[in-house]
Amino acid sequence: MKPLFDPQSLGSPYLVPFDGSFDLAQAPTRMADEPTKKASKKALGEAVERLEELQRKLYADDRYSLLLVFQAMDAAGKDSTIRNVLTGVNPAGCQVFSFKQPSAEELDHDFLWRTYRRLPERGRIGVFNRSHYEEVLVVRVHPEYLEGQRLPRGARDDLAALWRARYASIRSMEEHLARNGTVVIKFWLNVSLEEQRKRFLDRLDDPSKNWKFSAGDLVERGLWPRYMEAYQDALNATSRPWAPWYAIPADDKPAMRAAVARIVCETLEGLDLHYPALSEKEQAQLANHRARLQAEGKQGKKAKKGKGK
To answer: For residue 187, is it left (φ>0), alpha (ψ between -120 and 50) or beta?
Structure first.
């Protein structure tokens, strides 16, 4: 299908190819021409201002919705990126959902149900902090989690086939969303193993960040190679023109945030959003309303003068 917006027109070096050739080993965790912290903050501030206006247009235009999906290893900066990029957006026009361990109700539905019911309506920006991709990432690394999903008998006999089937379901769902006006942009924040180690130590050394750390973080860190394999396969299988993946270098947080904000803004600008245009009849009605309000103002001034006498 023809995408709502052509992501290749951005010329982003972080766009994951659509032909399955993405090589995670070649994906940088730092930008080649890494900007200074000051430059990154300035670029982010400018993008935030643009996004504020674009969100208003998106809401007024009321034809599209925007879904931003964030996936990453622990300590890559998902929360802070979401917070910093969307800091200027009207809360009424944005909704953020985090997906962690599924509930009993969610396990009684198919694996896409819990995210599908949280999709943004037209005119709004929806953000998934983790998403349906957990089902081909963490569940792939921990296939024992499938035991609680009540899958049909035999579904777990061939795990490779199960992951391929889930990729197909995800592609179909995202293509359906695009056909109906939802622009899907997916960000994988690519943090290095060494940078994660430093950030974990920072959480341990700073009492205000101790709550962010758990022993389970180290368990998952020990499975890094398996996670990288799962990410590479998932990105190759599901990066498509109507739902592209961007592998954003995440070792430098300010630069990462600026890059994400720029992609979001340029994508929205590519939709050619407009404030609704009024018909001649509606414009004439506005002129009448304006004249009435102006007349009321003049009458009010006269009344005040009369009281003053």
So the answer is: beta
SS3 assignment, position 127: strand
Q: What is the pLDDT of residues 109-145, one digit of tens each?
A: 999 999 999 999 999 999 999 999 999 999 999 999 9
Please count the other Cβ atoms lying within 10 Å of the Cβ belonging to residue 96: 17
- What pLDDT, in 10s, does the model give residues 65-83? 999 999 999 999 999 999 9
**Strands 125-129, 182-190: pairing kind:** unpaired
Work out whether strand 182-190 and strand 245-249 pair parallel, antiparallel, or are unpaired: parallel
Provide the whole-model pTM.
Answer: 0.92
Q: What is the spatial distance between Cα 305 and Cα 309, in angstroms, rounded to a whole number?
A: 7
CA distances from 7 to 54, 248, 266, 288, 299 (A): 17, 15, 9, 45, 56
Cβ atoms of 54 and 171 closer than 8 Å: no
- Copy the structure tokens of residue 17: 């190819």
